[in-house]
Write a structure and sequence with these properties.
mainly alpha, 3 helices, 72% helix
Length: 93
């Protein structure tokens, strides 16, 4: 999260950053997608990480907590992809 915000990929590549067909269309799309997805990641995933650490400290690792946290992580990643792609679609003529 913080890594992608601090060190976004400068050039379009196939191994680092937010990589989808729409983000690779152009350099402006690529740069926007990197910034936008990094910001969303911090907003959505950092509080989830804090919650996960807190739950593990209080309750320990249980199957229910593990499954709940995994589900929340997947939901957050889905939201990040959906919102970023939606914004990219608005940018593309």
């Amino acid at each position: 999260m913080v890594f992608f915000k601090s060190f976004p990929p400068k050039n379009i590549n196939s191994w680092y950053g937010y990589r989808t067909a729409k983000s690779r269309i152009s350099k402006p799309n690529w740069d926007f997608a990197q910034r936008y997805s990094a910001n969303l990641s911090l907003i959505l995933l950092f509080p989830l990480l804090l919650l996960q650490v807190l739950l593990y400290a209080i309750c320990g690792s249980t199957a229910l907590i593990d499954l709940s946290i995994l589900t929340c992580w997947l939901l957050c990643f889905s939201i990040i992809i959906y919102k970023t792609e939606k914004r990219l679609k608005q940018m593309t003529p």
